[in-house]
Amino acid sequence: MKPYLKWTALSVGGVVAIAHIGVLGHLVGKQSERVEVPTINIPRGTPYSSYKIQAGKDGYTIEYKANDPAILESEKSVDLIKNQDKKGLFGGTKTFEDRNEYRRDQYTIEGVRNMGGASLPGEGKSAKDVECIVADAGARSQGAMAGTSIAAGVAVPVVSSIPYIGWLASGWALLLGQNLGSEAGSQVNSIISDC
Q1: Cα atoms found within 13 Å of the Cα of residue 113, Cβ hemisphere only
Q2: With contact defined as beta carbons under 8 Å apart, do 143 and 185 qualify?
Q3: DSSP secondary structure letter of residue 113
Q4: Among 179, 185, 81, 91, CA closest to 135
Q5: Are the CB atoms for 157 and 127 separated by under 8 Å?
Q6: Rg of the Cα trace of the chain?
Q7: What is the mean pLDDT of residues 82-105?
Q8: Model pTM score
Q9: Domains of the chain, residue spans
Q10: CB-based contacts of 82: which residues, under 8 Å, 6+ apart?
Q11: Cβ neighbours around 147 below 10 Å, total
């Protein structure tokens, strides 16, 4: 082989070998400088979840709302319709009137309609208050039964003999006995239960 071809082949081979080494060094250096994007595990919630992700050089933030929107709204509107028919047994006029209605409701995610009446923190019933309410309801019920039975045994036979209105007076006597018994039961319960 001729010497100038040998030197030419070695020169070209050397240049290609140095170029490869330079390219590999450049690529390895770039990989160490490459910024890795973080893996963000988005929470799995209800179908009505919303996410807001902000990423920057200093890091990232995630804002997650489980029930978004938390309150759903519904609006309905019905208009007024008047209709007059000249029908009837004696030729009178029948008027049909449908009035206008506007209704705006709020629902929770479960479909429960908001009836209003929310309470502020610290405004509820304590366990003692609830216990007193339950005891009062039972005492009123028992007192009403006792008052009705006493009125049925004592007052009804007396007032039922009144001409023309005896049947009505008997009902009044039973209602009066029921109301008095209910109040008496409530008062006795308040003394016993210390409410």
Answers
A1: 6
A2: yes
A3: B
A4: 185
A5: no
A6: 44
A7: 69
A8: 0.37
A9: 47-116, 127-193
A10: 95, 96, 97, 98
A11: 22
